[in-house]
What does this fold into?
Amino acid sequence: MTEKLQVLYKVHSDASSIEERALGLAIEQSVEAPLAAVRDPCVLSSIVGRVAAIGDRGNGWFDVHIDLSSATVGGDAGQLLNMLFGNASLYDDVVLEDAVFPADLIKAFSGPGHGAGGLFARANVEGRALTCSALKPQGLPVEGLAELAFKLALGGLDYIKDDHGLANQLFSPFEDRVRACAAAIRKAAAATGRRTRYVPNLCGGFSQIEQQIAIARSEGVDTVMIAPMIAGVPALQALRRAHPDFAFIAHPAMTGAARISPYLFAKLFRLFGADASIFPNPGGRFGFSEECCGKIVEALRGPLGGLRASLPVPAGGMSLERVPEVLDYYGREAMLLIGGALLSAPPGKLVAETAAFVRAVAEHHYR
Amino acid sequence: MTEKLQVLYKVHSDASSIEERALGLAIEQSVEAPLAAVRDPCVLSSIVGRVAAIGDRGNGWFDVHIDLSSATVGGDAGQLLNMLFGNASLYDDVVLEDAVFPADLIKAFSGPGHGAGGLFARANVEGRALTCSALKPQGLPVEGLAELAFKLALGGLDYIKDDHGLANQLFSPFEDRVRACAAAIRKAAAATGRRTRYVPNLCGGFSQIEQQIAIARSEGVDTVMIAPMIAGVPALQALRRAHPDFAFIAHPAMTGAARISPYLFAKLFRLFGADASIFPNPGGRFGFSEECCGKIVEALRGPLGGLRASLPVPAGGMSLERVPEVLDYYGREAMLLIGGALLSAPPGKLVAETAAFVRAVAEHHYR
It folds into this structure.
């Protein structure tokens, strides 16, 4: 029969009712009906979720391991999310902690089309981590964003991405912005001889996104950003299939709301085709722990049924001073993203500050 | 200038640092950069979020009212969600509680194309609540689902929807299922003289969804279900615009009750075009309170810049016995959804049990 999708939930419960809770969860996340309403013997034997194990974590929290049938996923990213946590997300005492994907499920998805290695190859970089910054704040007119892109590219960055707040607003519509920023980066490349990659942020419905991809391609752009929990995970899956020439960087917006562990999101985004994943580095302005980020790195780089590795992109309140420490932690297989701290440099010093960031990464002696 | 999008967050914090937290949230959800990096006076004056008020709720929780510029939304459903909670979702001590949409923002979205009234008109029903059940469990072959659809339709229901777990799995692929269930319901209509509406569940990437809409339309289907937090809210917005002949029922999968209030989700889904919204009724198997459901009803039916009302669809562990109580609570402007409890009836009694549900709704004397 079909292989098992192994899911781990954390459930807050009385010890006396945890078995019933676990069984309820297994039913909710599979047939979503009382067992009295499940008469087909095949459904009973192969589709109804099974409680594989329950472990006591202390303080009223339990590990609940549930096996689901991978046949229920049907090769769709949205449906995988639905099976993992669709209705269970409505329980405020249940956390989706982790999942182990069987081989047939992994095969149904494609994973990164380029992966970490592809992002290094695009930037023509070996032996060091990649550098990245962000165009912000939203509200700036197109010319202002293009000027920032020009200066950041002059400073020698590998990648420059749109802020995830840059959508298709009147103050900087997607098409005008992408054409202007791509041109600014070409101008910088003509001056420096080194090509920076501009990474626009995709947004809107799928037909808009298709138009955005076409605009990006016409400007020589080959790497884009998408927030899968804003655009919908099926959009990432569909884009990865429809546009194999593009690399995709996943943004974590809205990943926190649903009580799903950040490293499972990292694993899912990799499965669906993200070549890189942005996440908050410990010590920045978000509360992710070092342990959590270690698990994110493992989810992105560790073995996953032969899929390419995704590149970790630690971000979120990073500064130039922290570059050595961050490089020692993540090693060469990462992209360092410093946004606001670079842009806080006086306009006349932005190129120099960017160059200092690039130099710090290039000259770092990894421990 | 542009109008203000008023957002209410609940933040857990020390009293001594709540002002700093609130300011940080206002910046995170607008320019997402240190103010030192924001030099454009227009951005500073009109795009940077403002802390409008802070209120102490007790127990370390604070109400933080933040005003954002509606110009940042750019008329995109995904970007509205991003502005409301994109990065803030990564803070585990912040809850998105509510939002007030200014007139220009509401105008940029279309709201329900048919609304509650349209769902009653389709069913040719006046003066009573609507009835609905669900085809489940997933795993059943197409013939099994079609047989259920036939019996439920013979029982006289107004609407029969796919379970939200029915995607495009091999055991009941979308096209085969929709054609078979639509045919089964036509056969029942030929016998009873009364037409039940079949509501398929949309899933997958946008091009798949477009194909699904075409299949549904070719079978005379005019109402479909979508889980906006699985498919992506931009999909609901785009479908509502592209297919004005269709009505859309929103499913709450992945709305993750604890960190975004369920009634804000209800309001958002209405704004984006949902004609009806399913949510867990108090006393069912989810922990939604009566107060919360009251607010959901207000979000769906209350004034919202002239948009049509969405129809409340209480569900989630409902039973025949509870029909009078539920009708008294929601009144006539609702759709009652009983799934598993109906389907638990022995196969030979399913038509009679469904007819009893229909009769209980039709003959109820509203308080």
